Amino acid sequence: MISVVIPLLNEAGTLATLHQELSDVAAAHDYQLQIVLIDDGSTDDSWQVVQQLAERDPRVEGIRFRRNFGKAAALSAGFDAAIGEIIVTMDADLQDSPAELPKLLAELDEGYDVVSGWKRTRHDPWHKRWPSKAFNALVGRLTGVRLHDHNCGFKCYRRDVIHEIRLYGELHRFVPVLAAARGFRVGETAVEHRPREHGESKYGWSRIPKGLLDLLTVQFITRFGRRPQHWLGSAGLLSLGAGAVGMVYLAIVWCWSRLAGAEPVHLHETAALYYSLVAVLIGTQLLAIGFVAEMIAALVSRDRDEFSIAEHTGPSEPVRRTARESSAQHRQSPSPAERESR
Question: Which CATH class is domain 2-224?
Answer without folding.
Answer: alpha beta
